[in-house]
Amino acid sequence: MLFYWIWxxxxxxxxxxxxxxxxxxxLLWIVIAYVVSTICLAIIPxxxxxxxxxxxxxxxxxxxxxxxxxxxxxxVVFDVPLALLIFWGFKKLKTKAQ
Length: 98
Hints:
By secondary structure, the protein is mainly α. It has 3 helices and no strands.
């Protein structure tokens, strides 16, 4: 769960790492990174745990996926605007330094 608290900062680094200058393209990269991470953090781990334990209970898998997706979608309300704010602040700071 610690990864969810670090997530806005990592999302803000994606457009900074690609040296994107426009906020609209930064939003696109932030959303793409968020979707990919949601798939990796919410959908894949229950299936990997199913492979390790050898059980194939669809109710168990659905419960874990729905719990992870609910947490992930609730955090998007805070993470994406915060990532855009961090990106905007970095852009302003960089402009002021030059």
